[in-house]
Design goal:
6 helices, binds zinc ion, 178 residues, 6% strand
Length: 178
């Protein structure tokens, strides 16, 4: 069951990459509900699709997936797979929002923000993964962030020092305003 749940987690990381790269950034999918929401997230920076929309999408996904998963792997392992996948989807949602709203804690927290804001502000064709760089490395879209130049009007509150109107000193080596 642990292996099945781990497979579910791994499956989410791949879906996270594919949905973001293709549904979010391929012109052919710009008019889909996800495409529209994602373009708005990039334009406004602090906009996130409403939770009820995410909830409906996740519920539909579980409804479609649970039958085949149980048929293929049995009740316990099939359910563990789906719980692993949807549970890690929840982790992704939490992490993505925290990246925008709070400064990172620890090496992973700082890495995740730099990886994601390189995607937002440097090159939207790179770094589609949010929880890991795994599929960017597999598909050749990984780029190691240098200094990230953040547009003033899209600057995250955690990055901005209200006293100086510039990047907080602890982030000055890795971010700057443009
Ligand atoms: Zn994007
Ligand atoms: Zn984002």
């Amino acid at each position: 069951m642990i292996v099945a749940a781990a497979c579910g987690v791994l499956s989410w990381t791949l879906l996270e990459y594919l949905i973001h790269r293709w549904m979010g950034h391929d012109r052919r999918f710009r008019r889909t509900p996800f495409g529209v929401e994602h373009v708005r997230h990039h334009i406004e920076g602090n906009y996130f699709a409403p939770t009820w929309k995410k909830g409906i999408a996740a519920a539909l996904f579980v409804a479609v997936l649970i039958g085949p998963a149980i048929a293929l792997a049995g009740a316990a392992r099939g359910a563990a797979y789906v719980v692993g996948l949807v549970g890690f989807y929840g982790v992704y949602e939490w992490l993505h929002r925290r990246e925008h709203t709070h400064a990172g804690v620890g090496p992973y927290g700082r890495w995740a923000r730099r990886h994601h804001f390189h995607h937002h502000f440097v090159d939207g064709r790179k770094n589609h993964g949010v929880t890991s760089p795994l599929w960017d490395l597999v598909f050749g879209t990984y780029e190691k962030p240098g200094t990230i130049r953040v547009p003033q009007k899209l600057c995250m509150a955690w990055l901005l020092d209200p006293a100086t109107g510039d990047v907080r000193s602890e982030h000055a080596a890795t971010y700057e305003l443009r």
